[in-house]
């Protein structure tokens, strides 16, 4: 069954265009290297919770929006192989530089997931 990397990111609303530009460029590279899907979704109906929520998870600040993203791979092995290539790809260098990042990467969280249900 497929493997998924998931991400939740706080993005300043005034940097959403820069984030989208970065995402489209990075997504093209991930797909070229073998990812099956690359998705980025901007929070639309994401309310703060009492105990947990997407906004709380990233310590969302005034003027920011939550972005929920995922990349789908054929397998964990393929994901690991693609991510190794991503880290070496010279086209990714500018996006890995914190001064070029359109969001606070310290408040991003992410992880890899084995797909359990795929309908």
Automatic annotation (TrEMBL):
InterPro entries named in the record: Dimeric_a/b-barrel, DUF1428
A Pfam family matched in the record: DUF1428
Gene3D superfamilies on file: 3.30.70.100
Protein name: DUF1428 domain-containing protein
